[in-house]
Amino acid sequence: MDTKLPLHKSTYIFYYDEGADVRGGASHRPIRQPPFILEAVRLHLRHGVEIGMDLRRTPALLALSSLVFTTAALAQATAPDRETPREIEAHDTVFLEEMTWLEVRDAMRAGKTTAIIPTGGIEQNGPYLALGKHNYILRATTDRIARILGDALVAPIVPFVPEGNIDPPSGHMLYPGTISVTEETFRALLTDIASSLKTHGFLHIFLIGDSGGNQDGMRAVADQLSAAWADEVASIHYIPEYYDNPLWNQWLELHGIQQVDEGLHDDVRHSAIMMTVDPTTVRMEQRMERGLFSINGVALAPASFTIELGNDLVEYQATITANAIRMAIGG
Q: How many CB atoms lie within 10 A of CB 27?
């Protein structure tokens, strides 16, 4: 007669009647096991692998780890040797999401132990700019920042940031398409991202944000983790120099760009940098057809001029940010 024992959270327990014959499948009576576990047992026995005691003659308690029988093959496929050699050329990118784990490993071993965590947003940006304005801009600026530094990689851009109260809505949440998270959620997300990078061996982690609502949360996370990591090799820093709209506007004025704010949450700088990434994000062709390809009293045509302006802006902002990063780590 079976004697029931409690199941361990990671172990499946089988009970068999006296004289049960699992090979025949007629008299065995497994209890509380998922079908795929039973099938795993049958497969092992079918291929001549004896498991545990003689199940045909003796009451047996068979404890099987789900890892052994249900995920052994999968584990072999998903947990390759961490020293697996990379047999092809690495892709030329600084973005972690575009790299293979082999490329990240080798890049870090070659000295790329600085990680940049950029935060953007999904929010209304006037009638012409895509909701992901900040993310497109970060795509351009972070690429250049990392390449100027030479030892940096860029974590995936964080698009989910505080954009206003969710219910009842406020701020950008009053406009369709905006996605907001609470300040608590935002800080928790940044904490986990930074901690993941630290676990992988990045020595210097930097938080930069392209939107005003992101700044306080990034500063708080950097302060909190700096205290928590005080006795560790890794460091984390918030870089406020990246977000300095008055300085960027001053640069535009020095280059002859005089704007009159039209109240559309859009300006020449944002449009120009977005165009360096993808002109469709500012609806260039549609606006040109309607004679609307301007912002704040400044014409954005010809596109080649505005894209060149955008590239110059990226270089200016990236250089200032890279210098701030070097200063933060005493470089």
A: 13
Tell me the two tokens of residue 44.
């092992």
Helices (H) and strands (E) in the chain, counts: 11, 8
Beta partners for residue 118, in sequence order:
208
Count CB neighbours of 236 within 10 A. 27
pLDDT tens digits, 320-331 = 999 999 999 986
Full-prediction pTM beyond 0.85? no
Distance CA 244, CA 221 (A): 20
d(CA 172, CA 186): 16
Residue-range domains of the chain with CATH:
11-77 (no CATH), 84-243 (3.40.50.10310), 244-318 (no CATH)
Task: Tally Cβ neighbours within 10 Å of residue 224.
Answer: 15
Yes or no: say if 2 and 59 are a contact pair by the CB < 8 Å rule: yes
Cα separation, 204 vs 11, in Å, equals 41
